[in-house]
Amino acid sequence: MTKPTITVIVGTSGAGKTTWICQQLRDMSAVDQVIYFSPGTGTVPIDQTLIATEFPGIKVFGEGQETEFLSQIPQAEAVYLELGFYFELGAIAQILGNQNYHAVAVLPPNLSNSEYHTWATEIIPGAPAPTNQAGSLWRIASNGQVVDETSLEEFWYEITHGAYGVVSRAKGIFDVNDGRSIYCDFVAGVPQTDFLELDLPRCLDGRPQRFSGLEVVGQNLDEANLKQTLLDCCLSDGLISQYQQQVQQILLQGELV
Length: 257
Prior knowledge:
single chain; 257 residues; alpha/beta; Rossmann fold; Hypothetical Protein Yjia, Chain: A,domain 2; six-stranded parallel β-sheet; five-stranded antiparallel β-sheet; 8 helices; 11 strands
């Protein structure tokens, strides 16, 4: 049996590690024997959810699934291990042991002579994200919550314009009031992108039974107000039911036209 190609991807926050992996997957003729592992994300697996949604044929592993991930490597054709900026490079050996791998670092163009440059066999120029990794990382899962999209847009504007501290990176997946699951992404110094609708069924029957959550990286983060404002965006059971009925009616009318 041919040994799989194991690619380890590291880099600074917001430089584009997951984006690069997605591009590699799109370029493949088939992805049904590919596995992806991103440890350290706890209960907020944003990147894992994004990849699993776009590439449903991939086996995706996250926090606490290291054993399952390692057991699947011999059966895979390609393996991607993505490490967040908060990991030391020494963590790779702790995960993979003495297995050979291709070392890729996705880095901002203005970063040079870092430990990543010494470690990597391939340097990928990424987004011009901030190179100062100092600061705090804050995460919150919001599974089962539905947020008002207009309120979310206002909240996202506040996050990205300094209302809760100096934010260098923010990303999140949210269920909104019309049943869609949307992905939000921000990197300081990089042109902002519109919210992205994930290719998932609309949730129109009660509270969603899938992941949603937010991750913010920055300095002097006001974590209490971040949490409270997100909760303020969430809808009650009654409003969720009301919105879902409205969307069901609209979709039914569209089908009958």
